[in-house]
Amino acid sequence: MLQPGLSLEITFSVTPDLTAKTVGSGTLDVLATPVMIARMEQAAWTAVAPHLAQGEGTVGTLMNVQHLSPTPVAMPVTCRAELTEVDGRRLVFQVTAQDAHGLVGQGTHERAVIQNDRFVAKAQKKLETQP
Fold first, then answer.
1. pTM metric for this prediction
2. Active-site residue, 33 included
3. 67 flagged as catalytic
4. Can you tell me the distance from the alpha carbon of 79 to that of 67, in angstroms, rounded to the nearest whole number?
5. FRET pair for 125, CA 20 to 30 Å: which of 5, 8, 28, 54?
6. Would you give the distance in Å from CA 128 to the centre of its chain?
7. Residue 109: active-site member
8. Contact (CB, 8 A) for 31 and 104
9. Which residue among 67, 96, 109, 110 is the active-site one?
10. 3-48 pLDDT, tens per residue?
């Protein structure tokens, strides 16, 4: 059962392959915003996955995040997601990222509970009906 309060943290170290320069989101060797966002999403879906019915999953539908502070290569970052609202199939999370010096990013993230097989079939159907 999905209930507000479910949460999970993911800690990782910034490596050269996770920098803005490498992923193409900028020119500097600091944690890339898309990487921070992906790890926030990972924390969110991982927090709720054990509470879903068999065959269900979640997909991201909205991300509203501020990247507040740069994090250099080799520094650990902890991304946290906490489920704050359950509205039918819509899930709302408060997400944060912190390094040893404090808050790096924060915001909200929404996910939708889906049937995995139906969702993949819908995506595959696009290949059959290409314009």
1. 0.96
2. yes
3. yes
4. 12
5. 54
6. 30
7. no
8. yes
9. 67
10. 999 999 999 999 999 999 999 999 999 999 999 999 999 999 999 9
